[in-house]
Amino acid sequence: MNSRPVADLLVTLAEPTRLRIVNCLSAAPLFVSDLSSILDVPEPTVSGHMDVLAALGVVRPYEVVPYTLYTLATHPGTRD
Fold it and tell me: 71-79: long-range contacts at Cβ-Cβ below 8 A with a sequence spacing of 24 or more?
């Protein structure tokens, strides 16, 4: 097993806002606007963090046109 993906995951989650996002998503799927309101962080900032989390497979996006609903991935690092 390669330890690099685990290290990347831990470094990504060490960022406080990303950890707070994951905590919120552990309760329910949310839109960026929901997370922005809950965390009191601008939507563009939340979107940037969501891109990073999605790239590592921590969250899964679901298109609900014209929005995107995010949920935690079943297994971090996997892309279904």
Answer: 71/25, 71/29, 72/22, 72/25, 72/26, 76/9, 77/5, 77/9
- pLDDT, tens digit (0-9, with 9 covering 90-100), for 26-66: 999 999 999 999 999 999 999 999 999 999 999 999 999 99
- pTM of the predicted protein model: 0.85
What are the structure tokens assigned to 40, written together? 């009191």
How many Cα atoms are found within 13 Å in the side-chain-facing hemisphere of 20?
14
d(CA 55, CA 78): 10
